[in-house]
Amino acid sequence: MRVATWNVLHGRSYDDGRVDLDRFSAAIGELDADVVALQEVDRAQPRSHRADLTARAAAALDAGHHRFVPTMIGEPGMWSPAAPPVAADTGWVRGTEPLPPPVDPAAPTYGVALLSRHPVVAWRVLRLPPARVVLPLLLGRPPRPVLVPDEPRVALAARVRAPWGTVTVATTHLSFAPGWNLVQLRRVVAALADSDDPLVLLGDLNAGGWLVRAASGLSALAVESTFPTWSPVLQLDHALGRGLVGSDARVHRFRVSDHCALAVTVAEP
To answer: What is the pLDDT of residue 79?
Structure first.
């Protein structure tokens, strides 16, 4: 089963600063993976032409099973958390049912998405509170330091019916606050330890490889530099696993986002 993770930067190109929806769809199609995890995903945001990027990605991938979970609602600079600040776990929800809490699809939102060509038996959402800090981030091109407060985070998991059986696949985009992201990572892994199914955890974890392996107790399915797109020297985007092995890892450098996409084939040992 081919899996991929990509922080899409709401579809914006670091070449020309534009959000080109056709270019975004073409990149997703080129990934050609069975399960794709996306972070920094917009829905109904003016900056991305009010498009539903999850729906566009699902169409490009021919993925019949997909969910988007917002972390923020409103437009950048005026947005607020899409859910209460207290961390909450929905538990497993049947694959045909909507995920709580309901959010008006016409409202501008931002979050993570998970798409699958294989049937999804159940979905689960784990809300993660932000760190109570304001930290400098390098934003823009050329990058400049900007003080940014942390945001609420979320993990979205699916029980996917893979060719050899059920696999739990999850995506998340963790805090940029050093240390707090590892606390969040441990919380996600602990929450998903309630099953004997193999596990694949995909996402932008905002931490390096040895740190996430040590904190999670999971194996690296792919070890590749993914950030920044124009000269990848760091691995912030990960595919971690339990009960599976990875092969044929590939980094995709698209004309979209400041992150490369990471894809890998996973199989039983």
So the answer is: 84
Q: What share of the chain is helix, strand, coil (3-state, %, to 5)?
A: 20, 40, 40
DSSP label of 9: G
Band (pLDDT 50/70/90 cuts) for residue 109 is very high
- Nearest CA-CA partner of 35 in 118, 96, 111: 118
Neighbouring C-alpha atoms within 13 Å toward the C-beta of 132:
1
Residue 146 has pLDDT above 90, yes or no: no
> How many other β-carbons are positioned within 10 Å of the β-carbon of residue 141?
12
Contact 152, 130 (CB under 8 A): yes
Q: Is 196 exposed, middle or buried (0-12, 13-18, 19+ CB in 10 A)?
A: exposed
Confirm if 6 and 259 have CB atoms less than 8 A apart: yes
pLDDT computed for residue 213 by the predictor: 95
Paired sense of beta strands 165-173 and 153-162, if any: antiparallel
Name residue 145's amino acid. P
Strand extents, DSSP E, 95-164 = 109-116, 120-128, 134-139, 144-149, 153-162
